[in-house]
Amino acid sequence: MAKLGDWIDPQPHGIYVKPADIWVDPSRPSPRALVTHGHADHARGGHDAVWATPETLAIMETRYGPQAGHPVAYGETLTMGDVQVTFVPAGHVLGSAQILLEHRGERIVVSGDYKRRADPTCAPFEPVKCDVFITEATFGLPVFRHPETGDEIDKLLAALHANPDRCVLVGAYALGKAQRVIRELRDRGHAAPIYIHGAMQRLCDLYVELGVDLGELIPATGVPKAEIKGHIVIAPPSALNDRWSRRLPDPITAMASGWMRVRQRAVQRNVELPLILSDHADWDELTDTLTEIAPKEVWVTHGREDALVHWCQTRQIKARALALVGYEDEDD
């Protein structure tokens, strides 16, 4: 008897779908690639042909230059060899997708990265019933339970309003997190200009081009200190403590990341205002998703595999860890 999912071959540099002769999220240039989303540990340049959502292809082109891209809309099903391939929203960042693979009566979902929280910058996660669910586990420990997004944004705004002679400098990953923070601020009524580091400009412009309204954004470089007082500045985490940030008016250093749940991480980065805001599922969202989907098997990757594998096994769900090459987004 054939083993469930034996037509999928997880290798360190990606997942090979044998009957379609195609790779999912390969970490090195490949003849044919399916890409879940635009973060660098899932999307890279140099593929001979790549299938992804239009938004992910646009992100890849912004980062890597022209792509031999084939856009796939959410809900669209392609036939590749003997495999049916469907892209479904993952709720991670703009354009992010789960990839449903159907072959020989089996359904396998490669979820990529995902979250279950509402996000005004991307389509929400859609659960898909399947036989095998391949899940990330970035925050796959019970200690990781993210607070309400609105409470963290309110904390940011309270610090801003309490310190009119300072600015709040928020470290946020350039793709997805920065735009989400900006949009969440707008949705909480913050209509004032937001200043951004130059490294944010291209992707913020792309988000606007793709229909995400970010309000008034002003490049922070070269602006007099007096003008930035009482405002929010968004920058890559690497800029929080470098020479660039010293030009700002006594900044309150903040960091938007799921890792801010770990106090030592905030201390290491000299973060005065930790904002627990993640684009990955927390422990409850991971386990609730598995309960909802009810797969026969769970394959776990990119994170704390052991705890989630154990959780599955105690509920009679077959589970195993995959040794895929990748890295946790340090600045999630």
Automatic annotation (TrEMBL):
Signal peptide: none annotated. InterPro entries: MBL, Metallo-B-lactamas, RibonucZ/Hydroxyglut_hydro, Xnuc_lig_assoc. Transmembrane segments: none annotated. Its EC number is 3.1.-.-. One of its GO terms (molecular function) is RNA endonuclease activity. Residues 11-173 form the Metallo-beta-lactamase domain. Keywords: Exonuclease, Hydrolase, Ligase, Nuclease. It is an enzyme of class 3 (hydrolase). This is Ligase-associated DNA damage response exonuclease. The lineage of its organism: Bacteria, Pseudomonadati, Pseudomonadota, Alphaproteobacteria, Sphingomonadales.
